[in-house]
Amino acid sequence: MPLHKALAAAFEDEIVILDSDHGSLLLLDTWAGQIWRFCDGSTTEAIESSVNGTPGRVRETLQVLMDTGLVCQINGEWIRSPIEWV
Amino acid sequence: MTPEAPAVVRLPSAGGLVRLTGPAPITTALAESLSSLRIREILPIIDVTLSPDARTADGVVNGDRMWSVALAPGTPVGTLLGQIVGTLTTLLAESLFVHAGVVGFDGRGMILVGESGAGKTSTVAALLRRGATYLSDEVALLDPSAGVVMPFAIPMAVKPWTRKAAGALPPGRAVVREGDVEFWLPNDREMRPIKVDTFVLLRHAGPGTRLSPISRAALLLALAQHVSSFKQRHRLPQAFAGFTRLLRNARCMVLETTRPAARADLLATFGRRSG
Predict the structure, then answer these.
(1) Which residues of B fall below an 8 Å CB-CB distance to A?
(2) pTM to 2 decimals?
(3) ipTM of the prediction
């Protein structure tokens, strides 16, 4: 399920996201943050070709991001949940 | 013990009141413990009423009972001080807080965050003896919009092991003693808000002492795990935005050691360096 209310803060190369729905914080390290930023309508293949990493690792990260509600896949395209930056 | 007239403690800069009613030895000690406290926002009145035999106490805010506690003989002040501080932090609407010790170095605030038993009090005491000023032993009261930490000067709860770890206490006075706990108010107190300069996460570790940087993101997550404004669900977005703002302009460190003296020496040296 996509998050409904999320705030995000970028610190250097890490991102922290507040999931207000569940009252939890999520830390995206450099790698996860990079994948997450590419979730702007890109397909899995497009993301794989844009980052340095094995396809398996990219797919694994996308799955984790989806499980936490940070992204969802619509018609093969990855979309970030709406985020408000602080 | 017999019921006494209420001792009224006015929080000078707050416009709010803590009204204490009950046996005089206890209410007097509590009043003195709270008398140096300054809170800049307007808070509702907290009524604290002890039973005549000092076995129980209630905390009431705006007519609503916030808590009732059974008081162990011999330690009512410590228990009630904890309840009152907890109530005050719950009532905050503008300031943020985190359970932490706070000292100042040349007008710059160092916030010491750690679990209970991590050595906050002994570290604060040892730092005061090395020239730091006292802001709090218990609560870092923060104004993110101004980037400052405010004094929250209740007495330090000095336990026997704290005294052993800290060595001699800094100059000050004992407000009250309960059992083997001494409530100690240091003389050298910071009276005004000061800039937040450093957050230090205190961790127990094996042999050796290490002070090293920690990422702001990791420290934000650590703060959220502690007793802080993050624990108040309705303030989550406010806490997230506020702590983020504070951390962006602060040095973030983690200190790993089991030796309080080494810890204080390192932090005093670090704290005197300009941010």
Answers:
(1) 215-218, 220-221, 224, 233, 236-237, 240-241, 244-245, 247-248
(2) 0.91
(3) 0.88
